Amino acid sequence: xxxxxxxxxxxxxxxxxxxxxxxxxxxxxxxxxxxxxxxxxxxxxxxxxxxxxxxxxxxxxxxxxxxxxxxxxxxxxxxxxxxxxxxxxxxxxxxxxxxxxxxxxxxxxxxxxxxxxxxxxxxxxxxxxxxxxxxxxxxxxxxxxxxxxxxxxxxxxxxxxxxxxxxxxxxxxxxxxxxxxxxxxxxxxxxxxxxxxxxxxxxxxxxxxxxxxxxxxxxxxxxxxxxxxxxxxxxxxxxxxxxxxxxxxxxxxxxxxxxx
Length: 260
Known about the structure:
Elements: E1 5-7, E2 12-16, E3 22-23, E4 26-31, E5 35-37, E6 41-46, E7 50-51, E8 57-58, E9 62-63, E10 67-73, E11 76-78, E12 82-87, E13 93-94, E14 98-104, E15 108-110, E16 114-119, E17 123-125, E18 128-130, E19 134-135, E20 139-151, E21 156-161, E22 173-174, E23 178-189, E24 193-198, E25 203-204, E26 208-214, E27 218-220, E28 223-229, E29 234-235, E30 239-245, E31 253-259
Parallel strand pairs: 1-5, 2-6, 3-9, 4-10, 5-11, 6-12, 9-13, 10-14, 11-15, 12-16, 13-19, 14-20, 15-20, 16-21, 19-22, 20-23, 21-24, 22-25, 23-26, 23-27, 24-28, 25-29, 26-30, 28-31
Antiparallel strand pairs: 7-8, 17-18
């Protein structure tokens, strides 16, 4: 716990079981007042795989329980990125739930990108496909900002990813639900706004849900990609998207769809 924090660098909070590591569980909790960081803010809970250079691919590790992240902050100002990422790509395992949760009393004001992702993708070792990660429970990216979400010149990405922009031939596995929730007074991005569940070639045992709730205005610089994407994937429950706001959004190019 901290009353407030200001730094000219990049605070990097991390719990890692990367490259074959093993943790019984992982919980990253931060409660603070106002936070100012000119170099960006990064928070990670991960058990990912890596390509060594030189050397082989070392597959992801395992967290034998829940992987939790709870960031409860006042007003946040970042001169670069704000990232909250729970990752286990490259055959990593979370034997429980993966739940990155970001809450602010004030604004989340960032100069470049805002990212709150659960990453559970496959990977590549050269040209060899390494299987996706496994989460036996639920995967949920939750962001609640009582002020405004502002990514001045960058992207706002809030996602559960069993696959990614590489569209690999295999995806990750989530035993429970895949959920994205974004709530704010207002949202403004310089480029892309992307609330998404990507289950291409993957598996979600429960529902896949994307919800965005904005009290006032939302303004997106370029593209809005508001999707549940699962070509050749499996969703055991329902696929659902919902957007609510008092004022209509100011979006340019919009993809609002469930892609099978």
